[in-house]
Amino acid sequence: MQKIKSIIVDDERNGRENLRGVLEQYCPEVEIIAEADSALNAIETIQTHKPQLVFLDIEMPDGNGFNVLEFFQSPDFKVIFVTAYDHYAIQAIRFSALDYILKPLDTFKLKEAIRRFIDNQKMEDVRLEAFLKNQNLELQHKKIALPFSDKIEYITVKDIVFCQGEANYTHIHLNDGKKLLVSKPLIEIEEILSGFEFIRTHKTYVINKKHVSSFIKSDGGYLKMNNGTSIPVSRRKKDWVLQELKN
What we know:
Blueprint: E1 4-9, H1 13-26, E2 30-36, H2 39-49, E3 53-56, E4 59-60, E5 63-64, H3 65-71, E6 78-83, H4 89-94, E7 99-102, H5 107-140, E8 143-147, E9 152-156, E10 160-166, E11 169-174, E12 179-182, H6 186-192, E13 198-202, E14 205-208, E15 212-216, E16 222-225, E17 230-232, H7 238-246
Parallel strand pairs: 1-2, 1-3, 3-6, 6-7
Antiparallel strand pairs: 4-5, 8-9, 10-11, 10-14, 11-12, 13-14, 15-16, 16-17
Helix pairs in contact: 2-3
């Protein structure tokens, strides 16, 4: 499992050393990448190291832990307060702290806080995956405008299987079997389709990844599309194309 990049903020050396020792013994999934001994130093350290998790003391000579958090408008890290004072808990909740642990350290509570961080990260990963999937579906359902000599036709992106260039023209093949001839070179069509699920497999072909059914290894390698069409893959692009198809 990937380590949780973390920072310890405490103005007392003994406090930092004690927490580091407990984490090393009981929470091996946590990696301490830096320490800070003041509020100002904490801000600088967070900006430099960009941790996922900050173990934050509250009272320090040059400010407090809340001053540190107020500096970051939209923090991309989680916070576990570790303090000797029990009267800041409500304020810690207002700052969306992952946990509030009193000194001397309760090992069980510390382990539970780390487990909660891991669970939250998994949930965020699932939400991000769902968001990206929805974004991709929305993109695929968008339409692009293709100019013809007598009209402009609007084509749904997901219906395009592949595009084949021929000099200053491009043949656009749709999944219903329809073929369109556009008076634009393939490089311009490729630019219009950039940001969607299209890749260039060959100097004369741009394909929709969503319509690829298989990669055939024989004859130097080529793609089989859902409509039965065989699409060449240039030798120098083969490894890159295969990697792109995994994404």
